[in-house]
Known about the structure:
78% of the residues lie in helices and 5% in strands. The protein is built from six helices and four strands, in the order H-H-E-H-H-E-E-H-H-E. It is elongated and about 60 Å long.
Amino acid sequence: xxxxxxxxxxxxxxxxxxxxxxxxxxxxxxxxxxxxxxxxxxxxxxxxxxxxxxxxxxxxxxxxxxxxxxxxxxxxxxxxxxxxxxxxxxxxxxxxxxxxxxxxxxxxxxxxxxxxxxxxxxxxxxxxxxxxxxxxxxxxxxxxxxxxxxxxxxxxxxxxxxxxxxxxxxxxxxxxxxxxxxxxxxxxxxxxxxxxxxxxxxxxx
Length: 205
């Protein structure tokens, strides 16, 4: 590419208006979320195909507790987004740090506690166990997305502490919060599928 062509291309990029760039960013994020929805939808279908109308005995109190933590985190994530749009940096930082903390507590509850106390594992007595495989895969995939959300929010919090965002420059916060809400919505479907729906049996070999 010649210097002139490169300069023309850069000039074209600079001509994109802030509103247009925001529209493109939002469109890209929603396309990504739609693609992720197919992934989680397929996992949910696999749960009903493999477990049918049954489920393993799981700790109901733990399941409810981590669900409450995640739903509460969405409230604070939304609070952080609204705060930065109104240039309330103190509330923004407080809210986003609370969101991160609740997300980490959710991970401790699911990965640190549920995985250790669950009555089933993917392999039991040297044989593949469908109940354990589905449980660990569903919770593991969701936990991975929660972890990526926590990392994303931590980056946003660090940039926000440096004054990177404001009422006219909030896309980074908005994008991270929308992704976090998506992860929460996925758990709204996963929680009843894992803990509530079907007859509790097991441990099953």
